[in-house]
Write a structure and sequence with these properties.
This protein is of the alpha/beta class. It is 39% helix and 17% strand. The protein has 15 helices and 14 strands. Strand 11 (296-299), helix 10 (314-337) and strand 12 form a beta-alpha-beta unit. Bound molecules: nicotinamide-adenine-dinucleotide.
Amino acid sequence: MTDRYASFVQSGAGRALVKRLGLPDPPRLRRHRPDDPLLPGPALLGAATGGRLAEPVGRILRAAGVEPATVDPAAGGDVAAADADTRFGALVYDATGITDSTGLRQLYDFFHPYARSLHASGRVVVLGTPPEQCATPREATAQRALEGLTRSIGKEFGRGVTAQLVYATADGDAGTETSLEATLRFLLSGRSAYVSGQVIRVGTGPATAPVDWDRPLDGQVVLVTGAARGIGAALARVLARDGAQVVVLDIPEAGDELAAVANEIGGSAVQLDLTAPNAAARLADHLAARHGRVDVVVHNAGITRDKTLARMNADRWDQVIDVNLSSQERINDVLLERELIPRGGRIVSVSSIAGIAGNRGQTNYATSKAGVIGLVDSLAPALAERGISVNAVAPGFIETRLTARIPLALREAGRRMNSMSQGGLPVDVAETIGWLAWPASGAVTGNVVRVCGQSLLGA
Ligand code: NAD
């Protein structure tokens, strides 16, 4: 589905008109293309006094082909190794050294001079210590304050710039650096085009760096449910591009579309209705016989059956809860019980911002999608011992058949009420799930990452 308004605005004539009338101005977002550099310009790396992450982050940037310019506090905050009028691809700030509220001034000192120095679709990443790991209440207070800064920058900078806060565990060791690397590479790249205003927690789970960061899923066996079209089909393509062997699953009625996706990516197809009796056991049998394991399970299949609660019949309620939530539980249970998900495995579920904000006419859907968040919260700690991560993405307005059915006025509101003034594309959700699935992302668990362009809903 195309956003005609965005296409018009991005044309020369449209741009002038929109500026004159003060209408929403959706920028063209930078999206990942395999041969592109990580960033459209150099990165500026700053750190609060006593920060613990500037050095590892500098190493990570250099390994990714980005030579960071640094702010030298001894020189009064001047940029070393870059012109003052350089246009940066990213501003990265290690705020872990901030131990009380008076230290927050260092954020202003770093960001204020460069607030207009970012490229379109540039990146802002602030690194902090999880407040619950801080040594004193004052430090925890200051670290919690970082959320307000990053979320506001996401709303303020415009032109497709994204801003995120990464809370990196203080129990640091070498494993953390790999996970931080995966997360930074994702957040700085065009893969995170429609992810903004997020708080991401990076812990200490097992993480394995890939041989080639362009193929971060090499050799992984991945299952994607609901892959005949929409987000699932985009996901299958992204995961295969990144090196995975992909098993796509959808209902038998979507068999032709599913086969086309499988053929296109050199994957295999399973026609199965997830609500059928014994579906989970049949799926487990198939995976065991064909691959002997499944490294990554992506629960993407989902349906809507919208009605206000007063008008909703019980069937609509049951179907939505069963497809969107209970089927995920049944599959997880069987795959885990039969130990088909090995150490280093990943479970990624698709939630929705409706599960965070609630939505009129979607009590069933929002209940199921909030349940998916509950599943992540409860399973992630339980599976940490087995080295399996569990995360969810919560898409906002994504241009698919599902959203094409929304009445025009509501559709336009959904598209524009976010920091990007446009809907996301299926590939944006796919890239985010891809990052959570990487073997290098092992310390990212228990997160719910919104792919919503920083939608105002539930913010
Ligand atoms: P879609 O309707 O285009 O695709 C969903 C797929 O799931 C379809 O191919 C469908 O056949 C399959 N499916 C449905 N029931 C199934 C069952 N019982 N067994 C096996 N497969 C089944 O939807 P989409 O927009 O691509 O959505 C994908 C996921 O993203 C869903 O979980 C949806 O709730 C979620 N989501 C979408 C948006 C959006 O804006 N499009 C926003 C938030 C969340």
